């Protein structure tokens, strides 16, 4: 054994937290909880010296990186709402603009491939802003040695997905990197759509009394990908839910007053709901038995120690609608082929602001917080 | 109904403090909001049964040191990835270039070794008697296959000495134990008998469904009301009284008890962990490598030890939720979803404070 060391980083973190106002030694649990809430709302700081995988997982670490690095550098009113796309006033009309990169591994999986994912994902980002998607760009980063046949397969499914979604891929870019510097093929798509409806969507529109709806069974894309990676030695009859959502979103917007829409990709439904609760300073209360999850997803999640609420979807969205129109909204969604499993999963309440609560099937209540990084499987 | 029976069994004016030893129980309790069902008189404290939570910082640093050596692939369970050592976690080491891979079972690590004959594959084994048999089986399999590039960095610990250390600590005020169901499938119920006999505390070996835990609390209260202190088995559908002989034999073929081992927060506990037997030294990472054996003192403000002993509730720790959060855990209790602090932070914050009534509607 060598001489004792202390963890300097930990001592420093403690010293920093000690300088928070009101952090005197608390006597009661409530005070501690208030202090935690303050800590949660505090301006985020990136402590890590290097990017870790957690920064890309869609949880707290991603959010922190975006706030502390990107927003900090690019600050402007169109960016700061941090929606799925930016809404831009152009010559009296409203355009929606968005971009997304796709690095999924494996490139081909049950239910789709990186190509239709790249088209559908960007179409969906436009759709949940209320826009009619029009044009996409496609950028490819290819690794030296990548089979052209695979590239053709990817572009064919992109073309099919674009035709299906009614968008045109009008510009693009290709770069090739040396063998070992990429993972076969990465795709980036940007999209432009036009916002023709006289609506304003977004977290700030959400208010107590609203209903929270998901458009179908959750977690299927994420679990499909995990199984397709072949590391788990399990098989399941499951396919990715990747789909273009513009049409079902239009159906919903035609039917009822909608406050907010988000597609539940990385970080899953739980992350979306937390963003709603934090941004609107409301409480989102969901009912565990009401959440649509296919038994095969539940089973896989139990096996892996994961919670389906945090697993990514690529063809599902979360909608917050006026509570009086919840049933009409679900009826409208269920009338669409992509919305057969739609359900009201919860309600928006005033208090406790900023938190997502889950009423368990057993009858208890617990918090559903944002994950730090990727959900890590438990061992026992 | 069970909840009202639990309430009826509580003597007016008496406070009951029970420890659930196993992290799996802690997780169930918070995930299902079970504390909502318990009367104010019953307090649950969370014991040392979270395998990740009891790994001292020094062992993490040792593992990272192994992972950084040329040609090494380090493998471990997902829970381990974010556990902070003195110099960061596996995730940080991975970001800095070490080849660290998450596996779901030691057999997956063996598979990696088979597929990478030119690399040195180390499996960081953690866990109680629950996971030790699978590590031992994997070593036997590696030996049978004649693999020479697979090594185990053994951090298996044993539950009984930890419970004894808690019972012997002067600041404990426990009325009984909810016994660890999974560990007991291997060791059985017999090893707990000293707790009832010598310390006069009841223990009920419990399953992991919410009803299992409520029933176990009911059984503990029943014993106290009757003035008894016995070891009882609620989890009879899985736990045999005498344990699983085959699993115990496999462990003792491959591993032996260490004279002492450091537990996070609890300090050194004698006879509390397992190491590889000399006969299997060829698979022992501690023999192959010159493991630095770093000893890192816990940060002074970190009170994981008190939390693990049940002396403090997670929220009573000075750094809970401010300096120590799931994104920047200082103590291991905040890392694993089974850790008392992480479970409380992620699930329990609300239930215990505001709005107790909403959960009953």
From TrEMBL, chain A:
<comment type="similarity">
    <text>Belongs to the HypE family.</text>
</comment>
<dbReference type="InterPro" id="IPR036921">
    <property type="entry name" value="PurM-like_N_sf"/>
</dbReference>
<dbReference type="Pfam" id="PF00586">
    <property type="entry name" value="AIRS"/>
</dbReference>
<protein>
    <submittedName>
        <fullName>Hydrogenase expression/formation protein HypE</fullName>
    </submittedName>
</protein>
<dbReference type="InterPro" id="IPR016188">
    <property type="entry name" value="PurM-like_N"/>
</dbReference>
<dbReference type="InterPro" id="IPR011854">
    <property type="entry name" value="HypE"/>
</dbReference>
<dbReference type="GO" id="GO:0051604">
    <property type="term" value="P:protein maturation"/>
</dbReference>
<dbReference type="InterPro" id="IPR010918">
    <property type="entry name" value="PurM-like_C_dom"/>
</dbReference>
<dbReference type="InterPro" id="IPR036676">
    <property type="entry name" value="PurM-like_C_sf"/>
</dbReference>
<dbReference type="Pfam" id="PF02769">
    <property type="entry name" value="AIRS_C"/>
</dbReference>
<feature type="domain" description="PurM-like N-terminal">
    <location>
        <begin position="84"/>
        <end position="194"/>
    </location>
</feature>
<feature type="domain" description="PurM-like C-terminal">
    <location>
        <begin position="207"/>
        <end position="353"/>
    </location>
</feature>
